[in-house]
Fold:
Amino acid sequence: MSYAGPQAQAVDHGAELARAGAHVQGWGGSVLYQARRHPLGALGLLIVAAFVLVALFAPFIATHDPLATNAASSLARPGGEHLLGADFMGRDMWSRIIYGARISLIVGIASTLLGCLLGVAVGLISGFWGGWVDLVTQRVNDVLQALPLLVLALVMAAALGPSLQNVIIAISIPVIPNVARVIRSNTLALREMPFVEAARAQGMSELRIAVLHVLPNTLAPVIVLATAQLGSAILTEASLSFLGLGIPEPYPSWGRMLSESAAEYVRTAPWLVIFPGLAISLVIFGTNLLGDAIRDILDPRERS
Amino acid sequence: MSGSLLQERRPGGGANLAAEPVLEVKELKKHFPVRKGILRRTVGHVYAVDGVSFSIAQGETLGLVGESGCGKSTVGRAVMRLVEPTSGRIRLNGHDITRLSKAEMRPHRREMQIIFQDPYSSLNPRMPVGRIVGEPLYVHGIGTAKEREERVAALFERVGLRAAQMKNYPHEFSGGQRQRIGIARALTLDPKLIIGDEPVSALDVSIQAQVINLLMDLQQEKRLSYLFIAHDLAVVKHISHRIAVMYLGRIVELADTRTLFTDPQHPYTEALLAAVPVPNPRQKRKRRILQGDVPSPIRPPPGCHFHTRCPYAEERCRREVPVAKEVAPGHVVACHLR
Structure:
């Protein structure tokens, strides 16, 4: 007859946050508090925030039009007029990388959001209502999960054709089963909780119980998952573009910038490969650090 | 244990035994199928509740006691229609609610509510407690937003919380306070019957007394009927007008509280009472300690379920199911030897 069973603890993230000091000094205070406890996470947050700011204020940070070609500065070295050099068509690398952050973040955030939204819906329906609906969705999920993210996105992108929306859709599909799994397993545990029974005893509709009583208790792990997915979505976009199935020309995508230059110029103009590669590495490094920290903050069992 | 801390008082409310009972349960059965294998074939049943009958009058408390796993919680949940009864009949205020659909059941849910054992898992951790308590009003479309808020505030004050605490979340409260919130939630719709599924078992002894006194005060004020499920005899003795003793899915004895404690007829009740600790180390008591464990409810013993542990068991007890008979007015025993 324990006071709080393991299940109760698992869902009590709110209490966990409060004990960790989250509500002591309001939002800003709690972010500072957590940043001190998780310095790497704070670094991740700074990196991600920096990329978001760069993407937002790209026109002010860029020195050139990212699409403007200039035969005179073809393959210009870094330094001088072109900070990070210029590509074969004389387009300024610095400006292209700045604008590339927009593409990366738009694709990353939009596909993660779309995937999470659909995944939450699928997971909640399959976990809460169970029965054959659950059986069918879980088998479909198995199939989707058996394929690697990139392969699945490749197939989707090839089928839909290259465009911004299609890339977002292609990358979001593989996110769905991951999120659905997490939501489903949480829902299975939650639907047996006494507070759900209490809601039923009061005559609430199943839909209301699912949305108001079960769903809010499943979302903490999704936030963690979404942060982790953000990094891999950006990477997948880069990979798709590298393979020619991503964002079409002339928009500057880091992945495409890499693929255009890798084969031909890696020896003669290595900066065309190094800088987009660095940008990709840095943003993924940042999202991973942030994702790990958020998981630690929300999950008492992961804390050491 | 807790009996010593409770102030001496008798259950109030003045049970009206003559009028139509608020709750009437007849031959209630709940068998959970046991499924095995990929095909989920039913290979047996858990006979959680196996033919239980009782009734509760307005303003009356019926205590339902038994060991863990005897099916007492399932009785409460079946009455609330949180699990589907396998057979039997449940009548609430004279209406048969046994087979009502979800929609048909809704108006009847205003008449009965349940208080859960675990004050932690029975409150949604993501909802302010004021909303938890007020939500039933919203769901049943009662009052305006302002009226609902006032009602919730009044309920908070009534159960011993401050109205200012309505916007707080469950984790900001102690176990006893949470159970008060659970009680307020059960009272929101002004029900006639409240099922307490071990409502104080998870609380400290001193808090138990407060919560039980609150429940008894509320009963007197609102003429509530309680089905009070518990395994602590001292607590049940304190709050109940009548007590039903359950063993492996069946009621073995049902009598008013005084009779049950002074003149128990069923061997199981005897053993149960002998196990109640007495807060006097010098008092010598003959203890009748039961041998063995409770048999599995998947394969309950034939005949009288208790015969495997009964010191008086005869051949007949192993074959025939004992029929409940009234040995004195209002005193029902299911035993071949009485």
Observations:
- The first helix of chain B runs from residue 72 to 79.
- Chain B touches chain A at residues 77, 80, 82, 105-106, 109-110, 113-114, 116-118, 120-127, 132, 135-136, 139-140, 169-172, 175, 182, 185, 189, 201-202 (CB under 8 Å).
- The domain at 2-58+70-103+243-333 of chain B is CATH 3.40.50.300 (Rossmann fold).
- Residues 1-6 of chain B have pLDDT under 50 and may be disordered.
